[in-house]
Amino acid sequence: MSPAPAAWAWRAAATALAPLLPLWLARRVRLGKEDPSRLGERRGEGADRPPGELLWLHGASVGESQSLLPLMGSLASRRPGLRFLVTTGTVTSARLFADRLPADLAARTVHRYVPLDIPSHVARFLDGWRPDAGVLVESELWPNLLAAAKARNIPLALLNARMSARSARGWAMAPGLARRVLGSFRLVVAQTEEDAARLRTLGAPGAEAWGNLKFAADPLPADPVALVALRDAAAGRPVLLAAQTHPGEELQVAAAHLLLRERLPNPLTVIVPRHPERGPTIAAEIGPLPLARRAAGEMPGPDTAIYLADTLGELGLFYRLAGAAFIGGSLIPHGGQNPLEPARLGCPILLGPHTHNFTAIVDALLEAGGAIRVGDSAALAEQAAAVLTSRNRARRLTDAAARIAAQSGTLPDRLAAAIETLLAPAGDAA
Question: What is the pTM of this model?
Answer without folding.
Answer: 0.78
